[in-house]
């Protein structure tokens, strides 16, 4: 299945490939980037995880899709990874950005293009996201609400799940958030 190169004013989003091992390592071994996710990986554990990532991509019906976030003005410097993991007839989204680029609207700019693209072109009925009630709760909620994600019942207390349905359509983007 082909994944398009996506362009925003500041970014290119391109499919991850075998040349992205160092980017993957820089993200997964950084204690700041990993703070709300898990303990940082060692370099060798990150490399093993990257091998597993590479084994998942490609093919006719991949269950995982990965995009690399590049800064256009920096000559295409790679600063993050966005992942979509298919489940049921939708997918779960996750994002990790280099800490030097946090809080400058990069995730928002990327999601504004990637979420509609994925819903329209990857045969997904919905995109889900989940977060803990932790230090990134405000960031994740601030990212997802304006993009038309709606809060769902979370499976465990202390967490929150979000869903953006394809049928919500583009009219949902920018509308007032509603919670179930
Ligand atoms: C979470 C993360 C993806 C956010 O990306 P970002 O590019 O910094 O986010 P943006 O600048 O696009 O901001 C999106 C919204 O979140 C808010 N926000 C971002 N970081 C925040 C923070 N640390 N605290 C409070 N709000 C924050 C922004 O203000 C904005 O909301 P607003 O427009 O209402 O103000 C980024 O911090 C990151 O990669 N963190 C490490 C990995 C991680 O924890 N990923 C999430 C789990 S998969």
Automatic annotation (TrEMBL):
Domain (N-acetyltransferase): residue spans on this chain: 11-179
GO MF annotations in UniProt: acyltransferase activity, transferring groups other than amino-acyl groups
SUPFAM superfamilies in the record: Acyl-CoA N-acyltransferases (Nat)
Signal peptide: none
Pfam families: Acetyltransf_3 (PF13302)
UniProtKB keywords: Transferase
Residue numbers spanned by region Disordered: 156-180
Domain of life: Bacteria
Protein name: GNAT family N-acetyltransferase
Annotated organism of origin: Cognatilysobacter lacus
Lineage: Bacteria, Pseudomonadati, Pseudomonadota, Gammaproteobacteria, Lysobacterales
